[in-house]
Amino acid sequence: MRERFSSTDTDSFSRIRAKGAPRRGRRSERFDDNEPEVVFRFDDHGAYAVAGDEYADFDGDHESHDGEYQHHENHENHDDDGYDNYDDNPDGGPAGADRWSTWDQSTPTEKGPEPRPAWVVTELAAVDTELGLVKTGKEADVFLLERGVPGTDRRTLMAAKRYRDSQHRMFHRDSGYLEGRRHKESRIARAMAKRTAFGKEAIAAQWAGAEFTALCRLWSAGVAVPYPVQITGTEILMEFVGDESGTAAPRLAQLRAEEVDVEDLWEQLGRSLSLLAGDGYAHGDLSAYNILVHEGRLVIIDVPQIVDVVANPRGRAFLERDVRNVGAWFVSRGLPEHRVGELVGALEFDARLG
Q: CA-based angle 190:188:23, to the nearest 5?
């Protein structure tokens, strides 16, 4: 079993929690004395909140945020079976792990598209063990999580992306992403606009729901994104892009020309962006910092702000910006500059903007 994950950036290391610290539960809590209990759910129409006896829809309020995977550190004090040497959970959780699998806590629309990859662990006897911090961001943190069935070799690594609570989140509203989106008047929308504690929690759920919905859609369309396993509250579990030892794949921005096949990666990028444009969308915040490369495979990450290029008046600008931002990396590594303009034109045609 793995001893410790390697990294060259020890400053980014962080332990998940101290022994005996509270384990994460299902997100359903009261935010202050003046707000009702709220539970966030997701379906084919997006995210919605059930607050007390009230049902309220709310739609995407997206903003730009960078994505980067960093290496991480594993927990210490492992038993021979690979699970952390913790005492039994006094709340009835599994011994030697952080929690039971949350698979049964997600509804069918909160689980990834079928057919599911064979590595997805759906057994209810499975347990989840947190292994370290992968990445911190402005709105969310990403952790490495192992889901496995004790006593068997059924286990897999996943990335657990958790949007932060209202006290630790830094949302920077960018109205450009909102154009072309519909909004409904509701108490939830007003709370979000006022940035109350309740509203901030709604924003977190909205971002998580938007990203999960986007991942499901893009994966089904054949775009190179991590497979979305499930969503519970503001936590998204998805495919971990990295090796079996738990080392995350490097970002495109970290790679040198001699380390990769620049032409092949450009072709992979073009195929994924073409599929995205053909479906009427642009990434909206694409750069060499939210693209991973694992064993020659290009994977696009951080997609909650995908832009409807037809409904959004700035859709064409977002599409072009995506290509030119990431194209700069390729040009600096030998790709002829005219190829970037050619891809912009091809994507505008695919999106029927020409």
A: 130
